[in-house]
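Re: beginner question about structure tokens

> Can someone show what the tokenized structure looks like for a real chain? I only ever see the sequence side.

Sure, here's an example I had lying around. Input first:
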Amino acid sequence: MNLETYQKLKKRLNNRKVWYFNGPPEKRPSALLAILPSDASFNIDHQRLYDALCDSLKTSSTNANSNVEQRIVSIEFVPLSCILNSLDMSNQFIVDCDTIDTKRQLMEKPLKIVVHKHSAIIELHSYDESIQREYEKFVKSEKYRELVKNHDAAVKRKSTK
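And the corresponding structure tokens:
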């Protein structure tokens, strides 16, 4: 590897924000990632998100007897801006739904939350698809890190001869 390519790769690896994984992520087929807008003018907490998800299910539900509150199983906050030490990263919630159909129903359109005449749009993505992409980025960056490490070791051996 020539020196210029090596330096570009090393710089890119140092600036890239990549999640760390111990192994392949666990599948959660009924889960969503709710990506919070970084420019929201109000705080979006668990309760606000839960209420918006329930409202969305109520307006799109064809079954008047369905209890929408039971269709959201859990909501977990993921503070990505802290985990990845970057204010450029949007925080997220992992939303576990009761079924894949509930997940699909929520993903049909972006979630809009309105508070005191201010609004925010929350993107809803499939958890499995998003986390798999992040895992692939992690694997790729680890391969590049190994390449850089091996190159550094080879340069040291060469310079000590």
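Each token stands for a local structural state, so reading them left to right follows the chain. Residues 3-160 form one domain.
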